[in-house]
Specification:
With about 325 residues, the chain is mainly β. The chain is built from four helices and 23 strands.
Length: about 325
């Protein structure tokens, strides 16, 4: 059990902190609009825990997660109380809320997120460019609009930085962490073609078939045929070709990945660069998981993607 106050869970509402950790898993991912925390903490049976409406998690003194108390299980046993939690970061609200249909013009990231609703606990990149429009229609979520904006404003898929900060600009080329000799437990590769699209065609606004068409020859060269036909996409009403490129790029999310598992806590964030000196490898952090258990101890796993929006992959033609 981690008992040195390294992995501290703060319970919002009851104003309590739990520092005896049985196990935890904290994760962030490039295309997921929130952080995820799961874990189990132990406290004395005499501890009185009231209503919990939020959770904060820090590791080695660094705050990593603030979020909703999605699921809480408080179990009293002989001599102690176990608190098992599942929590999504506050930015999950962006994917759970919809605006009424309509075209918004001359907007930036701030006006998309906070133009109509209030989202407590969420921050955003400031000084972002203004784009001519984002269109809400047919159940578009706030996060859908943020994605459309990020691609149109910066040719980049948005992501969550820190605990709950929405970003469209990558962190840059500076190496944020170097993993030295003996620090790596495992190294490997992943390939996932389960969601890729090789061809996509779209009707025009009047319903005419095949008005817009795009194919990905790189996917076709892998002997994958997966065609999609869609109605006119009003979210990309003024740039349907750009919309098709985006759909193919998203279909390749996490398609190829290189990953390492290292001992201890590696303090990095999404889109930051890391280097593993033993492997002669450097990459961008596109997914990270920090975990602790009695059997394995404290570990950090980092994934570096090569796909439609992350480095070193051929774009659709």
């Amino acid at each position: 059990m981690m008992t040195d106050s390294s992995a501290v869970l703060s319970l919002s509402g009851t104003s309590q902190q739990l520092s005896y950790c049985d196990w935890f898993s904290f994760e962030k991912e490039r295309y997921t609009p929130y952080t995820v925390l799961r874990g189990r903490w132990i406290c004395p049976s005499s501890t009185r825990i009231g209503e919990i409406f939020g959770l904060s998690f820090s590791l080695a003194g660094k705050p990593l997660h603030d979020g909703f108390a999605e699921k809480i299980d408080i179990e009293q046993k002989s001599g102690y109380t176990a608190v098992t939690v599942r929590s999504f970061g506050y930015t999950a609200a962006l994917a759970r809320n919809q605006y009424e249909d309509g075209l918004l013009t001359d907007i930036n990231l701030d006006s998309i997120i906070f133009g109509k609703l209030s989202f407590p606990g969420i921050d955003r990149e400031t000084g972002t460019p203004t784009v001519d429009y984002v269109n809400y229609y047919g159940g578009t979520t706030v996060w859908d609009a943020v994605v459309c904006y990020g691609v149109r404003a910066n040719k980049n898929y948005p992501y969550i930085s820190g605990r709950n900060k929405v970003m469209i600009t990558p962190a840059g080329e500076e190496i944020a962490a170097t993993i030295g000799s003996g620090g790596i437990l495992a190294h490997g590769y992943e390939t996932d073609y389960s969601r890729v699209i090789s061809q996509i065609s779209e009707r025009d606004i009047d319903g005419a078939e095949n008005a817009y068409f795009l194919r990905d020859r790189g996917i076709e060269s892998r002997r994958i045929t997966r065609r999609r036909e869609i109605n006119f996409d009003q979210e990309w009403i003024m740039s349907p070709e750009e919309g098709l490129k985006h759909k193919i790029a998203v279909s390749k999310a996490g398609m190829n990945a290189e990953h390492i598992t290292a001992y201890g806590f590696i303090d990095v964030d999404l889109t930051q660069k890391f280097m593993a000196t033993d492997l002669g490898m450097s990459g961008e952090v596109d997914r990270l998981r920090v975990s602790y258990s009695h059997q394995k101890g404290l570990l950090t796993k980092l994934w570096s993607y090569r796909d439609g929006y992350c480095p070193s992959v051929q774009s659709a033609e």
